[in-house]
Amino acid sequence: MHSKKNIKELNLNHLMAVLAALKQWTLTMYRSKSVEQVMEHVMERHYDFDLTYITERIISVFFPPDLEEQRYRRNLQEVASMLKSKHQDKFLLLNLSEKRHDITRLNPKVLDYGWPDVHAPPLDRICAVCKAMETWLTSDPHNVVVLHCKVSVT
Q1: Which N-terminal residues, if any, form the signal peptide (predicted)?
Q2: Alpha-carbon distance values, 128 to 38, 122, 150 (Å)
């Protein structure tokens, strides 16, 4: 049976251990502050596009319609770089924009399926996009599809 003195010593020892662990955790967090600052800097970087993983293998990339051409090309190069670093050459880009952009220089695997942005796509176009996606995705389990648009059609 523990006496009151022993219980106080146990509580004090427990408190000291918790404080030591807290101090160690604080020092670790302080040392990794530079990593956190780098991550904050990366996260604060402004991009003029929205890249979203719809599923693990289907990605949507949206560019604002009013984006000037030079900034659009720079952002498109950034997207291509991100995709190449994560997916190597295993991505197929489906251009759903009305405008035909010269994006084949960034990725030779580009299929154009664009339509006017204020209209719904024709049914045969939707079927063609779905068939292209199915063919590409079933050919290799590492393949991903990127749906590209410069207007809000995704």
Answers
A1: none
A2: 43, 10, 20
